Amino acid sequence: MDFPIDAVREKFPALSLTDKGSRRIYLDNPAGTQVPQAVADAVSRCLLTANANLGGFFETTIAAQQIVDDAHAAMADFLAAASPQEIIIGANMTTLTYHMSRTLGRTMKPGDEIILTRMDHEGNVSPWLQLAEDLGLVVRWLPFDEQSWQIEEAALATLLTDRTRLVALNYASNLTGSINRVKALTGIAKQAGALVYVDAVQFAPHGLIDVRDIGCDFLICSAYKFFGPHLGILWGRLDVIDALKPYKCRCSSNALPERFELGTPQIELMAGLTAAVDYFAELGAAAGDGGSRRARIAKAFERSIAYENPLAQRLIDGLAAISSLTIHGITDPARVGERVPTVSFTVDGIVPETIVRQMNAENIFLWSGHNYAWEIVHQLGIPPEQGVVRIGIAHYNTAAEIDETLESVHRVIAMLRQERS
User: Kind and range of the H or E element at 342?
Assistant: First the structure.
């Protein structure tokens, strides 16, 4: 069945907006996607009908608690968690990772080792670096292979010792787009007795996640990257998080997951989170899957992957035709399934921001810079103050938008080269 792109786009009001008559092309998706009308409606409905704190016995507080419970259940289905108790919802990925890193720090001592990758977003690096500095931990760095663009299992194996306490891994890069073999990497780390913390922020919009199949201990993602509101979601394996003692108020609940969710929750955003998960389920149902919500979500990803991958290759092929342009990531059509549709490039002699400013002026939305992929740009020798041009596809983008973007890239680069000469 073909992907129902017209029906999908109709669900996103932002896609029909214009500026002074000019259409918008949203290719800034790795930094945050647009939302379906259903997500905005759910947030609004909560604020208007269930706006209360938790723990009381009147109607709005009871309704608010149901919204919170529904959000945890929805994310349990989205990630294939064993229980909603394993779902911790907070402000964003970075805040949750800082909180969990400090909690895990209570189990570590000077001389213990942690492994960090050169491929991760800084949100899965700095919290651990600063924890190591505070506690006297040893940091071991795991580079990515610049031929495969992935973290290789053999490279991880050489770093593991009997002192390794945690391995922080990247599921998919927000700069190169490369997808790592996290299940295999996790298996190697677990054999050494280490905890595994997976950053799936960039993978979650583009692929089905099964935390139990991966075998990791923690996995984190961001709802605003998969058509939802600004929230972070951390899954923790029940036996692991149940043994941890988080930093929290003395009188707040010791139950799971509440003891990890500090302060009053963003209840209206949790309503939007459930709606975002249900958007995927509805997409799967439209393809004829009438099973569980998890089964419908799986069907939705099957369809969206089949739609996104050719768009990504269309973009890559078009960029590759430009002389002196370097794509930093997998370009082989046979390996398009090993990347998400985020494509970054540099052009010899041209600062990425100058390209992006010109394209933004044409209402093509994309980013330049290091995009918090701090370790990647340093490993590749890319000036961090310049970074890359980053184009990120979501499943509401069209082939026509990709073609128009490529035409703009070609024209802008030609213009900038002419100005230089």
Answer: strand 342-347
